[in-house]
Amino acid sequence: MLVNPRLTMPALWWGVLLLISAVLAWALTAFHLPAGVLLGCMLAGILLSSRDIRLGVPNPLFALAQGVLGCLMAQSLQPATLVRVAGDWPLFLGATVSIIAASAGLGWFLMRRQVFPGTTAVWGLAPGAASAMVVMAEAYGADVRLVAFMQYLRVAMVTAVAALVAHFWTVQAAPPIAPEVHWFSVIHAGHLGWTLVLAFAVSSVARWLKIPGGAMVVPLILGAALQAMGLLVIELPPALLAVSYAVIGWSIGLRFTPSILRHAWRALPAVLGSIFALMGVGVVIAVGLNQWAGYDPLTAYLASSPGGADSVAIIAATSAVDAGFVMAMQLARLLMVLVWGPHVSRFIATPSHNDR
Fold this sequence. Notes:
Layout: H1 5-8, H2 10-30, H3 36-49, H4 59-76, H5 79-87, H6 89-112, H7 120-124, H8 130-139, H9 144-173, H10 189-208, H11 214-228, H12 238-253, H13 258-264, H14 268-293, H15 297-304, H16 309-317, H17 323-349, H18 351-354
């Protein structure tokens, strides 16, 4: 019996993945592209997985990377930002409800036109919390392969477009000057130690408790609260962030297996059209945030981008934007999707509502 060498040499292919990721990450970073490490690793993962090379980021490692991202988001949510967010709660609620309503409406339309089987379109377009939506879709009988394809293609597309927009906006605003990076610099060992406890221990407990999105959300909320009370100073060395960016990128890219791509090929035009439509709604919301709330265009665009909260957080952290506002908006939408997304999807997918 012949054995496919692509499936029997994971150590070799991990070495190839690391090499390709390093080259792409260096090239994208050299062009001053925000989240270059994330994008390079994501592209490397897509390249290998599309060649039927089956690799996967271990769930505990992915949870730890999400914990670091949660701390990064919490670091941007300073008390002054939280006060402003509380004062602008109608804005947050309106923008969040708008993007969720748009995704639900697009899913309902595609389902009514029978572009996708059953409730696949509804689950596939639910914004944010991609992994949670895939799990929920499987539990409620949707075509989980097509849902996974829609979810992770949306995250990949929004991430790439947002990074390009941030890059060209920054170049037009001011010529980029690459600062010297001290990868392993530690300002205060105690602060770093408590940050690692928050990122690793808390995210591991949240994953063990099976809290949806908890590996990132729980460290985020707890870190922001402790920081606001003056009990914690979050410190994240660049090397730790880079490793976390790489893990997040691989976790997205390695999901694009040939079987998923083949299964979704016929529906690709409709999938792309729905994703672009959802991104268009995000642009409309961004224009509103810019015109009515006074946020700069790039900040408004990243805040309303319907991608993954983790990838948008990385782009915001590496761009000249109001990161606190972006993180707060993404957090508000992520929490609302986790709480209400399954209920909205089930409501729309109920046959009695489809027949009206």
